Amino acid sequence: MPFYVRLTPCFFRGSDYAYHHGMAEDPSRFIHSKLVVHEVPRQFGAKPDPPILSQFELPLEPEVATFFRDRTTRSLLEEGVEVKFRHGAATTVPKLISDIFDKPSTFLLATQEITSQLARSQGAGNNAGLLSIALGKIEQKPALAIMKLEKANGVRVETVHHNDGRVALSPKAIHDLMLTQQTRVFKVGMFIKISDDPQEIVGTVSDEQQRGRTQIADFFLADFLGCELVQQSSVSTRRFFETLVGFVNSRVPEVTTRASYMRAAVAALNSNATTLNVKGFVRDHVNTKHQSELSKLLAEQNVPNSFRKDVQEIKSKLSRMVIDFKNGASVIAPYEIDPATFKLDQGDDGRTKVTVHDKVKGVGGRK
Asked: Would 10 be classed as within a structural domain?
């Protein structure tokens, strides 16, 4: 079953900032429950050194958890982009993340396999590094943070030995190294399960080694995480609106139906909901005879089935409806106008009569 992911950046400015940038949740609210660190050596030769895997979980000190959360969040704010899991990706990471969410007891073993997958995805040109993987919650939703860190040459990471001989890399030691600037953040991925639907996992990825936003190394994004970039929210919002406008003007002859569809779209885009479910909109607001054709057209225009709304590019188009007539006349009205004062009546000859019953406020040029 395919997975779908959405998501991007936010840091100390809170949820409003996160929503503005397309994030499903504010990552600065991440509350740790588990964190492990593994090491991936540089992958030289036909038989590169295997990863050094933590074999048990260490207690997580609060200040260490806070530090890891803050570094993760800062990276997502500065460089994060929304991603989704690719259909048919060869990597096992999407399934491992889903398994962790469904059964947290698999966390340690799953993180070991995730680290091994990173080692297999890296080439000789990729830096050695430490991989921290944290499980927790954001606003009571399961969340997973993956952070690849630099391992500076000559720096040895402290290990803790269990009575039975098992070893684990110390998150406290990594915290101390980062404070002394002996290691830095390379790449981050954060994934959140926003509902019980296994497809509803949202995520953001950042790459501090690449220049420019939306630039993520292929080995990390595709080969390791099995992800691809998601269309920007502003683009999805604009395409949805423009496709609907084109559809009603070319495929819907009834003027009142056109107006009904446009009012519904404007209301949906201006609502407090942060996302728009396209299938739900078509089902609830479009006549049955038009649903299939509109759905096909939206898909052809690469409008996602669900997207986070960003109306900045079309804000001016959402305030007033403009009705242009063939004779050159135009009528401008707010979408939310009282129907008792504004009526559209289409005759059998295809012509439409507009009735405005109200007091005249003024006369002037087109607004």
From this structure: no
Q: 3-state SS string over the chain?
A: CCCECCCCCCCCCCHHHHHHCCCCCCHHHCEEEEEEEEEECCCCCCCCCCCECCCCCCCCCHHHHHHHHHHHHHHHHHHCEEEEECCCCCCCHHHHHHHHHHCHHHHHHHHHHHHHHHHHHCCCCCCCEEEEEEEEEECCEEEEEEEEEECCCCCCCCEEECCCCCEEECHHHHHHHHHCCCCCEEEEEEEEECCCCCCEEEEEEEECCCCCCCCCCHHHHHHHCCEEECCCHHHHHHHHHHHHHHHHHHHCCCHHHHHHHHHHHHHHHHCCCCEEEHHHHHHHHCCHHHHHHHHHHHHHCCCCCEEECCCHHHHHHHCEEEEECCCCCEEEEECCCCCCCEEEEECCCCCEEEEECCCCCCCCCCC
Q: Among residues 194, 210, 229, which one ends one of the domains?
A: 229
41 shares its domain with 73: yes
d(CA 259, CA 22): 29
Number of domains in the chain: 2
Residue range 309-322, pLDDT digits in tens: 899 888 888 877 77
Cα 334 vs. chain centroid, distance in angstroms?
Answer: 32
pLDDT at 339: 74
**Residues spanned by the domain of 239:** 233-356
Q: Could you tell me the pTM of the whole model?
A: 0.63
Which segments of the chain have a pLDDT < 50?
1-22
CB crowding 280-296: b at 16 or more within 10 Å, else e: ebbeebbeeebeeebbe
